[in-house]
Design a protein that fits this description.
The protein has one domain: Trna Endonuclease, Chain: A, domain 1 (3-Layer(aba) Sandwich), CATH 3.40.1350.10. 35% of the residues lie in helices and 37% in strands. The protein has 3 helices and 5 strands. A 5-stranded mixed sheet has the order 1-2-3-4-5.
Length: 132
């Protein structure tokens, strides 16, 4: 597996743990269709599913990560653009149909900035991202 795939999986693992620690139950991970993938499907209540897109970026040191956050350099959530949301929407519709799910749902984004060598990460949870 390529290094970027390793970082992506690490970010998804961190995001899943963060969701669980925040009271969510993980329904499914890496739901894949040929037109797209949902990283995490979770719920906090029985009445709403959360389709979570995870974006991860790694840094060499904690200082570099803190500098990037404090100076608002490139933000991983910027990669969740209109095209990505459309692909995600199509994949979500497939999941809803397959599972015959008729309750409420929303799309969330979790960004993970990680320093693998120092086992340090910063998680940002962005709720209810909508395509306008």
């Amino acid at each position: 597996m390529a290094k970027h795939n390793d970082i992506g999986k690490l970010g998804e693992d961190i995001a899943a743990k963060w969701l669980e620690n925040s009271g969510f139950s993980i329904i499914e991970r890496n739901y894949l269709q040929k037109w797209g993938e949902v990283d995490i499907i979770a719920c906090k209540t029985r009445d709403k599913a959360h389709f979570v897109e995870v974006k991860t970026v790694s840094y060499e040191t904690k200082d570099k990560l803190i500098h990037a956050v404090s100076h608002e350099t490139w933000r991983p959530e910027e990669m969740v653009h209109e095209h990505k949301l459309k692909k995600l929407g199509r994949t979500i519709q497939t999941w809803l149909s397959e599972k015959k799910y008729t309750k409420d749902f929303q799309i969330d984004v979790i960004t993970v900035r990680v320093v693998p060598r120092e086992k340090y990460a910063v998680v940002k949870y962005i709720e209810n991202v909508v395509l306008e």
